[in-house]
Records
---
Amino acid sequence: MLLGGFINSYGQIITITEKEANEPLELVTLLSESPKIYVATNAKGQADLSGFTDSEKIAIQTFGHKIVVKSYAQLKADNFKVAL
Amino acid sequence: MNLDEIVISGVRWRQNSGDVPMKIVSISAKDVEMGNPQTAADLLGVSGKVYIQKSQQGGGSPMIRGFAANRLLYTVDRVRMNTAIFRGGNIQNVINLDPFAMENTEVIFGPSSVNYGSDAIGGVMNFKILTPQLSLDDKLLVPGKSVARYSSASNEKTGHFDVNIGWEKWALLTSISVWDYDDLKQGSNEPDDYLKDYNVQRQDDVDAVITQNNPLLQIPTAYTQMNAMQKIRCKPNEKWDFQYGFHYSETSPYGRYDRHNRVVNALPAYAEWNYGPQKWMMNNLNITHKGSNKLYDQMTIRLAQQSFLERRISRSLNNNLQTTGTENVEAYSANIDFAKSVGEKHTLYYGFESVFNDVKSSAGTLDVLINKSEAGPARYPYSNWTSVADYVNDKYKINEKFCIQTGIRYNYFILNADFSNNLCFYPFTFSEANISNGLVAGSVGAVYRRNKKWVLSANLGTGFRSTNVDDIGKVFDSEAGSVIVPNTNLKAENAYNVDFGVAKVFGDVSQLIIPYWKMPWFDETFNSTA
């Protein structure tokens, strides 16, 4: 119970890295139009996707990289790791 | 190369730029890092998207589509920075913003009064300051950066650091920057118009015109500046997010070089002409709630208080009377913005705004020889300016290729000016002025995305600028034989604008954008000159 509560308090975390350098990418934006949610990654390349569970399209974008559009289910299948 | 990016400026909420018919460009933190600008004005300039006019090193007045000063709107963390004393001539309030603390800057080209109200005629510059970051694992999140810079052109010595401390639900962010500029040395291949082989120094109570060996040295343009920012964030759960920001910026006095360049009878016109100190402070509380109720899916409340101090200090050569004009503006604003999906294809963005500016203006003369001062005519009357508005936008996404956005705003303004502070200096036939009026702005635009490589857009928008304190209340000698006097019968400015855009991406490396815009009607406000 205690362990479950601990995990839930952080929600579902996605980690976004730079493909070539394998470094975390900060200020990557993740936007869903339905439901309307927006988050940005922190300095560790992490963002909380808790509110995106019903999203069919999540646009993942940052400066100098192509936009990646994926559903929540696809991101889950990728173990919530994206390399741009 | 992307035709899509996430922008916030269009309707004050984050959207894919592919749904926004207005021309919006982003200047990211990476752009800033690469451009390494000295000031926030330079940040806009190095982007290549905004032209910057500078009368001196401590300057920087953005120009967009030929408009400047109070026909452009500045926002900081989505709080209106324009005050009721923003004048028509070039201004340099933007230098109070710290380029090292920018998370992102967006520039809207063309009128956007539907979402931003008065002054959004030529464009809008939205400066987003760093956001405190939360830790998303069980470790403290402590990112930060520090910068030290030296530049030889002005012997600049600059230091900056910012640090974030993020816990699971709380985060703190501190940012400090300090600049020290010596007199600027212009390039040897620059125009001769700004060369000057003399400067004025006060020696034993006498103005001495000193010959300087290096005419490239622009004396006096040296100044210093410090910026401090503290943000606190609390996100107790997924629905609520609270952010408080404190911002403070102060410059030293800085020489107005174009005035120091003036010559009368083969002598410098001025012994002193300084702007500053120029101060700006903002307290800003930002509350976001994700609701999914009948009124909204998301709501943001912004409450802000800003204090502005501007000073002009001048003294003619061999004249012992130094004049100082001091302007204080206290600005209070409240915004409530909502976003609500209606059905599958419509999204409403609507909100309310209230802004109040309180203007206090004073002036005095000081006899620098005997150190005796007395009151002088103030630049402005004691005044207050109020703006109350509501607006609504509808985004109608017909399908994946075609999107229409329409918007309308109603804005009511009240301006009260009390001229009694200047009646003993000028024989006005009135002692106060009261102006109020309601203005409407509208916009309609469409975006057609043929495919990922082609986008066509069109937008028809209006902009307005309500009469402000500078328009009706300014009294000063602008040039010999000419005095600007108050005009209490001024009407608001209105502009109508049409934009078309075609964007095409070639491969992954190049992008062609063909913009076309025309402002067929712009009725301008004029002061009276006597």
Note: Residues 2-9 of chain A form the longest helix (8 residues).
---
Amino acid sequence: MQWIEFGVFTALFLFVSVLGFAATHWRRAESMQHLDEWGLGGRKFGSWITWFLVGGDLYTAYTFVAVPALVFGAGAMGFFALPYTVVLYPLVLLPLLRMWSVSRVHGYVTPADYVRGRYGSPLLATLIAVTGIVATMPYIALQLAGLEAVLRTMGLNAGGLAGHAPLFIAFVVLALYTYQSGLRAPALIAFVKDLLIYVVILVAVFYLPSKLGGWGSIIDQSAETFSGPDSGGSILLGEHNQLQYATLALGSALALFLYPHSLTGILASSGRKVIRRNMVALPAYSFLLGMLALLGYAALAAGVEPIVNGATGEPDSNTIVPVLFDQMFSDWFAGLAYAAIGIGALVPAAIMSIAAANLWTRNIYKEHLRPGATPAQEAKQAKLASLVVKFGAVLSIVFIDPQFSIDMQLIGGVIVLQTLPAVAIALYTRWLHRWALVAGWTVGMAWGLWQLYLIPKDPATGEGHFGGSAMPLSDFSLFGWQPLPDVRTQIYVGAVALLLNLLVAVVLTPLLRWFGAAEGSDATAEADYYATEAPAGATEAAEAETSGETASR
Amino acid sequence: MTEQPMSEPPMSEPPSSAARARHGTDRSPGNLLLLVPLLMLVTPLWNHDEPRLFGLPMFYWSQFLFVPLGVVCVGLVVRAANRRERAATGSAADGTERKN
């Protein structure tokens, strides 16, 4: 048991818990009994708060332990996280501005709300909401895996249920203050988390090379380790994985803001200017992430051995960064680093559970179960749903092999990408027919899942499923026809699934029009997409519009 | 994304109020700058070991250089957009950044 590390970690954890409970009084509205207050912090966060909040939301604890772990195991391929977070902002800048404006005018809280308004199709909106919830749940479970990696490194590495107790306690505390304070809690805690992360990483990237003989020697030692017989890594990309690297980076970038929790941070901001400024300022985190990725090599050069997980009996590669800090730094600084990672798990887990709760409340509860729900009932329902979501995530970590949550996360990226035509393309054109979008979603989803299932866990023996997100082009087949039988180049499954999805949607649209299938009503007008403020009396109008019952009476 | 013909005046002039009514302040040929960072996805450009910088192979340091490049491209587009929006809404644009 590492007492000093544990002491520093616990002290900081208690500090942010107090912040989380106090956050309910921060920039308080007259009434918290509205989903805009609990689920979007009142839609009035300025540039700084948004920067910390979205930064804390996108660059999660899991990223901080998993990206270096990937570099540790595979080398250059793990570095895709950097191009992913660099091409992200130029791609999403303009669509996000349109999304913010139209959501502000119509009072939308979730991407499915928008789809509901744009296409007048409850089915399509429900599909988008369910996709969002299914993709977000394993993401929350992964934050737990990141937190657990830190706890186990500090010596809380028991087997069985007792081994999960610290995680359980941490999550009960998190669940309670999220229930009380809503989005204000992670927004306030994100300040502490990000300051800790910046200090820890900057110290690490300058101090570690000086101890390990400089980056040149670290990279050379890593290259030597990779040249061993049973290693699959390399410090440069190889012949077959360059397309995979580019499509994985691009596909992940396109998928990120389709995740409901990323959009939550954007919709909570006070204006278009805030979003614009943040698209310029957020890459500071990307720089940090790139440096973190390099720590994977530092761990290789330092000869770090991953800790054996007391619950599963297998080495957990997510522990390499915590172990590296334990080996190279004094106990109190390692404790600081662990607190940074641990709190880094709490912030996104809170935002994700809020986003999933918003989806449940707005697009399933209010749409199908209780159409006339008042704003106060919505807020209550969302708070309860956030508890259910978090305990679901804890149970999945306790009772299901953690490896399963990593598989699920892999699937999550592929499936959330299938909502791109209905959410992102819809921001620009309503040309695609709503039933064509449903069909495209179905095809992309089915093909993507099937393809991921076919990827063997163990490439040597070809056994198991969900072993990765890359497939060789030679495996691509349409009803048995293989257009590229001899190409060994790897590609990201999500990118191919999205292309199929778009293809189906584009081909079916003119056909459906020709058969005269109903278009559905569009509640949005072109001017809504660049509005800088909600029109006066917008809240009441939006309420009437989303609760179709009242509007039609 | 260009379902309507590009009929705006160049970035430097404020667009006519009629053009604004149709497209808002987001559209501008200057937005094409946003495509520049996508060069980062062309892996053969930088998938090399030499030359090294601070001991890092080109693969790593050149990708780090794309971070500021992306910031500059997005930054230029954002500055132009803020200027257009300010011209369009006058001092009311500051109202969106209410402190409360």
Note: Chain A touches chain B through 55 residues (CB under 8 Å).
---
Amino acid sequence: MKKRKSISYAKWGYIFLIPFFLVYAVFSLYPLISTFVTSFMDITVDQGFISFSGEQEVNNGFCGLQNYTAVFTGEIGRSFYNTAVMWLLGFIPQIIISLLLAAWFTDLRLKIKAQGFFKALIYLPNILMASAVSYLFYGLFSQGGGIWTIINDITGYEGVLLDNAWGARSIVALINFLLWYGNTTILLMAAIMGVDTSLYESAQIDGANSSQMFWKITMPLIRPILLYVLITSLIGGIQMYDVPTLLATSTGYPGQSLLTLVMQIQNRKDASPGIASAICIVIFIVTAILGGIIFYVTEDRSDKRLARKRKKSAKEAV
Amino acid sequence: MKLKRFLAGTAAVVMATTTLVGCGGGDSSSKAGDSSSSAPVSEQGKVLNIYCWNTEFQERFEKFYVPNADKSVYDGVKINWIQNTNEGNVYQTKLDEALQKQQSASADDKIDIFLVEMDYATKYVNSDVAIPLADIGITEDDLKNQYDYTKQTFTNPDGKQVATTWQATPGLYMYRADIAEKVLGTSDPDKVQEQISDLDKFAEVAQKMKEAGYYMVSGYDDMYRLFSNNVSAPWVTDNKITIDDQIAKWIELTKEYSDKGYNHGTSLWDDQWNADMKKDAKVFGYFFSTWGIAFSLRDATVDEKLKDDGSNAKEGNGLYGQWRACPGPVPYSWGGTGIVACQGTDNQELIKDIMLKMTCDTAVMKSMTADETVQDYTNNKEAIKQLIDEGYTNPFLGGQNHLALLTEAAEKLDMSNKLSAYDQGLNEKIQSNMKLYFKGEKTYDEALELFYSDIKALYPNLTH
């Protein structure tokens, strides 16, 4: 008699995975495909009409890339600009301050006291709900609010910063900065602490100063994490919604200068689902590309490189 | 093996029981789902779903309907309030979604009542989702005391009235007696009214106020309804937006007021707008309908939060008793909430009772107007007349009888050919975008372009 067939438990793996794929297909994959299809349709919903017998929705069918053209031109095109500007205004100070704080906290010579306390303090804003912070800032900066009064007393400026395009954008950027710089600091600190301390020691012995060590040792070695921070922040940035919405009460006030892409989706989803879907798809593609870059950069390719080297040397040997 | 069988058996029993329980709840109403409009009283649903955008109706319902309810239809019915904010068309969107599912929804999930505001009443009044009042059993005679303009607003093109409201909303100008005394030399409503009886005179007084260090109105939007309710044609005709001369006049006037410093530059419902009602603020008056007293002014103007027992609702608490009301420069109305019975409801008897008690019953409506925390100018001529005859005075308005003033104004109101189904969005967007023009951040043309662009996102089927 031959050896008995061994029992395979592999199928159980698949069976236990079924619920996930089922949920994924119903709640993620199907909506994704249907969004994709809708993004090529010319649909208008008449918000001033409701009836059991007549249709609110007028579907003119397939319309080619019309919705996508609309995304990159006109008002929605401007939203791209708004989103990018507000992200940049928040991200640049964020990365500078975070790098500075991370460098100070990890500096061997500075030996800052009560590090744990400060780290917790810096990270604290990140725990707060973005909407709560926006609401607070709205109160502070609007007419009669605390900061408005201070500005008014000092400069005599009667206007409201939130009524000015750049003023309002700066406030959005400030909130995003306050919420996220702590998180970035912690990430960068982890990256810097991952750098071999003997490098710094030998640099010190060779007479390098702090700024030389920072630019020549720290920066090159934390580059992958920097890139990771940049791209995750970009992905978060392109989906910016809650802070500007609460400051601008969904209209993108003042003058649509706070209208981000996701706000455009919200504003249009009821009346023109085709255009709203096209915006979704564009965001999806951009996010996917950015995610792909992270994946490519952070993937550990040392094995492959080693394999290539071996192959090469083997060839040479032949 | 035995254990397994036992478990399976138990499970089956449990499941069967739950199913039975599920049916049990509806024993008297199990047929309600397919009951026709002529269903007898006994076949009423057990859940009443009401769509609303704030707690205004709910408060009135609990205070005035519940004690007066017809117990045979009200008892045992669970009232479900489904609340969504009006702003940004959220309420309409949610309501429309629910209406689209109305025909397939189970009896207890169906909408029974929904509320409509003047700004979009037309959309629902002209639709087949509303049940005409006559079909519920409310007769012309029941509605005889209501103001004609409210009936007109809620009448569909077939001439059937489909909604009814408990409030008539003639507009007022509410001003501070202390400032009037100081600047105009009198606080008597008739004399003040004489000085502001048209827009030119109003502006003259505004200039006086400015010289004395006061603002005539708080914000940019305060005077909007004076114009928007006197337009010559609705916002939208045949899917085309027209900016009526009255709206243009509002823009022009508000710009002038802003440049001259007649207003304080606030926005409707803002914190600062509310704060301007306080004693130490510098604003002379507010344009409000009667609901504004209880809904906003009363709470915002006092120093010590008003207690439920009304013990501190007296002069000396902030500006309580220091406000006066007069009709103002232009007759107008603002707001008004219609109650609509939704097609497919299984609670027609209850809805009929609610509508009758809340919007037709003279005694109930009288108490509603007299109630310190409500003060609605109720949609019942008889109730108002009785109150006036009984010598009604309003302590918040320093003992003034403002109802007498309003009776005349309410009779004259006419809302025909002024409302479109898109008014909510159009009113909201013109106010928010023109604000930039008033503040000098944008030119008129830029602000107008932004308005059209906002509207294109909201109502893509409209042109201009």
Note: Chain B has two domains: 42-168+335-389, 172-332+403-458.
